[in-house]
Specification:
The complex is a heterodimer of chains A (286) and B (329). Chain A is mostly helical and 286 residues long. Chain A folds into 2 domains: 40 residues; 212 residues, MetI-like fold (Orthogonal Bundle), CATH 1.10.3720.10. Chain A has 12 helices and no strands. In chain A, helix 1 crosses helix 12. Chain A is globular. Chain A starts with a helix and ends with a helix. Among the domains of chain B are: 32 residues, no CATH class; 171 residues, MetI-like fold. In chain B, strands 1-2 form a two-stranded antiparallel sheet. Chain B has 329 residues and is mainly α. The chains are: A mainly alpha (286), B mainly alpha (329). Chains A and B meet through helix 1, helix 4, helix 5, helix 6 and helix 7 of A and helix 2, helix 5, helix 6, helix 7 and helix 9 of B.
């Protein structure tokens, strides 16, 4: 290949690359537009939202919508419920999942394979078909409209995936490391906590955030279990704003949506990479 | 933690590398275990119990109960204490002889397959795009997708309702003003089932694509650089390298992701339910999830329908599950 040909090919390569880059940026804009629209509308006064001509850049933005959300006592009540359910779910699910993940990745025992199969199959159960009997079961124990009740079904829903994910992380820490530490004189427990556990911390954080996102965002089960308006979680509260009357105050709804989303997005950006890494590791390596 | 407490023997410097006292059988089988064999055998089971209990309460028991209920007559009267009557398969025959139910099933399966296919197609395309572009473009695309992925479902659902609002929605404005389709000015997108499903598909695909992109992209990164370079030196075009080298190498990832998409799209509930509440005719727009929800007053019917849904899920995914189990073995 002559130098000229090589150069022209390289040039064509860069031009194609630029074009692809442009396409990528355009796709990004399309994908981000609804989110942009949510935040942008949250800052617009009602009279700017109720015009046929949409406002694309909120140059005359106002905080009035946010003020109205903060003046709403039901927002704080729902915030309280959401936080309690999420924290309870998280604490229980992560601890239990961690123990189970240890069992299946560090021990060979009878029933191990059936357990793994169960974890996989349980995730296929269409929870959307189960919620009525879940409601009934909670009802018999007087756990309907209770933080504990919603948390139980959330833990059950989150655990299988969390176990699966953590198992990937535990398997990823070679046992040889622990054994080497034991050769150097550490006990098994000490070796585990001093060597393996720190290496698992990212996995625990990732599954913790996964659980947080699931519990914080969940809508269907909350809809079924929390029928009392006083026990609504934030997603129920938000949808309630849209349904309350036909003439929806979109500015307030968007302000509420923005407030609910921002902490979630921050958390999510923080650990997203580790979450999918855990999934791939858990899913691909046997 | 079940590992044994530290024993003096293990701390004394010249102790053998693997003091027998260390306990649970993480050691390969055949290694002699001298102390507390019972605890060693019980260890893993004790670790599993805490996880099993909530799953049994929150999923297992409701599932079994629902299954049993689906063979009984259980309605309002039984709510007030009348014992349930066994009716055999009557609930199933009643449901499956109703053409409306078959309509819901057909719509759900079609919706699921179309959405899963679109999501996979767009997702793989964007993952490949991401692996081809420069740093700045890649970061932009990643941030855009992450924002869409990370936003709570209900928040995005309210935005989509607002975007498609018939009076002040920006979609209608875009179609009417810059694109000149003035008939779209007051158009309601969710009144007609066909456009209802179109909107639902746009939303579901928009929400599901980021997960596919990032997972497949992570897989593509693991394809060894040397393989690709070797293929390039041998004269393989970019398309050939992708089609015959990279994609087969990430096939396990694609398989898992496709399986999850099928499962998730068959059980889609929130998007459909919220759009229905926004003013769509519910009977014409039900999919399996919302249909079962609408049956909630007739528990045994809902139970039978949920069992049917589970069977459909298993039928759609049996192939994948078999393969996954084989790999797991």
């Amino acid at each position: 290949m002559t130098a000229v040909a090589a150069r022209s090919r390289r040039r064509r390569g860069t031009a194609g690359r630029r074009l692809l880059g442009l396409a990528a940026v355009l796709v990004a804009l399309v994908w981000v537009f609804p989110i942009y629209w949510m935040v942008s509308s949250a800052f617009l006064p009602t009279n700017r939202l109720r015009t046929p001509e949409p406002t694309f850049f909120p140059t005359d933005g106002t905080l009035a919508n946010f003020r109205r959300v903060f003046a709403d006592p039901t927002f704080f009540r729902s915030f309280q419920v959401s936080i309690s359910v999420t924290l309870l779910t998280l604490a229980v699910a992560i601890l239990f999942a961690f123990l189970a993940a240890l069992a299946i990745s560090r021990f060979r025992f009878r029933g191990r394979k059936p357990f793994i199969v169960t974890i996989l199959v349980v995730q296929m159960i269409p929870a959307e078909g189960l919620f009525i009997s879940q409601y009934q079961v909670l009802d018999t124990w007087h756990l309907v409209n209770a933080v504990a009740g919603l948390s139980v079904v959330y833990v059950a829903a989150i655990l299988p995936f969390t176990v699966w994910m953590l198992r990937g992380f535990v398997t990823g820490v070679p046992l040889e490391l622990e054994e080497a530490a034991m050769v150097d004189g550490l006990s098994r427990t000490a070796a585990f906590f001093r060597i393996t556990f720190p290496l698992l911390a990212p996995g625990l954080v990732a599954s913790g955030v996964y659980g947080f996102l699931q519990a914080w965002n969940e809508y269907t089960l909350a809809l079924v279990v929390m029928t009392d308006p006083d026990q609504r979680t934030l997603p129920l509260w938000l949808q309630g704003l849209v349904e309350a009357n036909r003439a929806t105050d979109w500015g307030v709804v968007m302000a509420g949506a923005t407030l609910i989303s921002v902490p979630v997005i921050v958390f999510f950006l923080f650990v997203q990479r580790r979450m999918s890494a855990g999934l791939v590791a858990g899913a691909v390596k046997g | 933690m079940s590992a044994t407490r530290s024993t003096p023997a293990a701390v004394v410097p010249p102790a053998p590398p693997r003091a027998p006292a260390v306990g649970p059988p993480a050691a390969p089988p055949g290694r002699p275990r001298q102390r507390s064999p019972r605890r060693a055998r019980l260890g893993p089971y004790l670790l599993l119990v805490p996880a099993l209990v909530p799953v049994a309460i929150g999923l297992g028991y409701p599932l079994v109960r629902q299954f049993v209920l689906s063979f009984q007559e259980y309605g309002m009267a039984q709510q007030f204490g009348r014992p349930a009557e066994w009716v055999g398969l009557r609930n199933y025959t009643e449901l499956l002889s109703d053409p409306y139910v078959w309509g819901v099933i057909a719509r759900s399966v079609a919706f699921c397959l179309v959405n899963a296919a679109l999501t996979m197609g767009v997702g793989i395309a964007l993952a490949v795009l991401m692996s081809r572009v420069g740093r700045v473009a890649r970061m932009t695309l990643q941030v855009g997708l992450l924002l869409a992925w990370g936003t709570p479902v209900l928040a995005t659902m309210t935005v989509w309702q607002w975007l498609f609002d018939s009076q002040y929605g920006v979609v209608n404005w875009l179609l009417a003003e810059p694109l000149g389709m003035t008939g779209m000015r007051q158009h309601s997108w969710i009144i007609e089932p066909a456009s209802f499903y179109l909107v639902a598909t746009v939303i579901v695909v928009w929400m599901s694509v980021p997960f596919v992109v990032f997972t497949v992209y992570a897989g593509l990164l693991q394809v060894p650089e040397e393989c690709m370079e070797a293929a390039q030196l041998d004269g393989a075009t970019a398309w050939q390298r992708l089609r015959y080298l990279a994609l087969p190498m990430v096939a396990p990832v694609l398989l898992v992701v496709a399986l999850l998409q099928v499962i998730w799209d068959l059980r889609v509930f929130t998007q459909i339910y919220v759009l229905q509440r926004a003013g769509a005719p519910t009977r014409e727009t039900h999919l399996l999830g919302t249909f079962i929800y609408s049956l909630s007053k007739e528990f045994s019917m809902a139970g039978a329908m949920a069992t049917i849904m589970l069977v459909i899920t298993l039928a759609l995914t049996a192939f994948y599950i078999r393969r996954m189990l084989r790999e797991e073995a």
